[in-house]
Amino acid sequence: MATVALEMRRRCARRAGRLLALAAVACLGRAFAVWPLQRRGARTVSSASVVAEVVTERLDHVLPVGPACPFRSPAMVQGHFEQDMAMVMLNAQGKAGDFEALARQIQAGIQPDPRQQRKVGYDLKQQGELLKKLLDGMETSSDFQVMETFVVMETKAVKMGAPSARTVEKMTNWQGTAIVAEAEGMMVPPPPEGVDPVALARATPSGAQGFLSAPNAPRVLPFEEPGFPDTVEGQELKARYLKLVDEHSELVTFGEKYGGFDQAGKEFYLDRMEELTERWSSVMSAASMMGMKPVRAYEAYSEEYLSQSGLSPETFRDLARDSRMDHRRAGFGREGAGVSARSKRAADMFVET
């Protein structure tokens, strides 16, 4: 009797594991598409919006900061992070058919071929491991721009009420392990702590866009010097613009060792980035009021990014602001010694006079 009872418990456990795996498999084809699109122009609540000092100019395009920054750090270029993320997405989408076929069999009460089930599980684990390696490299990088890319992804997920990149990574690894275990008649391991597979499947609508790959349009500066009006106001704006371009480029280079700054150095750097974001907002708004339009390549990038993300120019600005706040809360980067003094001595490079 004890043996029978034990076998019954094992069967029940496997059944429960299969149900969890089914919930996971139901969204496998969307495992890398878990950020629901926000309707363009929809209102969002930004923590930056409650700060009275924040400028709220109307914008027609994204700001050249964060994902749209035309200046790329060497670590960002050499690390191929955006290309690798796009490749992970592409590979996952290519496996979607196998995932969906397995889900249909389980839903119909058909015992899947264990060989096919193992293949799906191992494919999932491989994708999860690739994603983990990529996210680990971004999160622990010393370069600010690389870390910023990770923080923007996580911040955007929170703002949209969607699973974070880390949640997707953990779920993908667990899904692969669970499917292989079920195929081999073993106990399915519990889901990652704090992750509900069933809730995740329900929160992942079909057709949703996932981790955004870089738009095809190039990242460029919004204006060219001859495009400024030959008036006093136009030339003053041109001077502000050129100064801002130089300081932004220098700040991106300065951020290559952000991970080694001590806390005061990081706070200084984030202050400068926030200041530049507000100055870009002011310059772009002033240019629009003068009737200036960005160069066509910049407009193309802005249109493509907003279309992919479902953001508006204003909510893009909010995303940049909120990611800075998340940087402060998380204290991203490894602590370094003796960097803060050098950071503060460099302040004159970036403070607008």
Protein model, in words:
The chain has 353 residues and is mainly alpha-helical. It folds into 2 domains: 175 residues, no CATH class; 125 residues, no CATH class. The chain contains 13 helices and no strands. The longest helix is centred in the last third of the chain and has 27 residues. It holds the Pfam family DUF1825.
Count of all domains: 2
Coarse structural class: mainly alpha
> Helix and strand succession?
HHHHHHHHHHHHH
Strand content: under 5%
Ranges with pLDDT <50 over ≥5 residues?
1-55, 205-210, 333-353
How far apart the termini lie comes to 85 Å
Q: What proportion of the residues is helical, as a percent range? A: 55-70%
Q: Can you count the helices?
A: 13
Q: Topology, pairings included?
A:
Elements: H1 2-25, H2 74-79, H3 81-94, H4 96-107, H5 114-139, H6 144-159, H7 165-183, H8 197-202, H9 232-254, H10 263-289, H11 296-309, H12 313-330, H13 339-345
Helix pairs in contact: 1-7, 3-5, 5-7, 6-12, 9-10, 10-12, 10-13
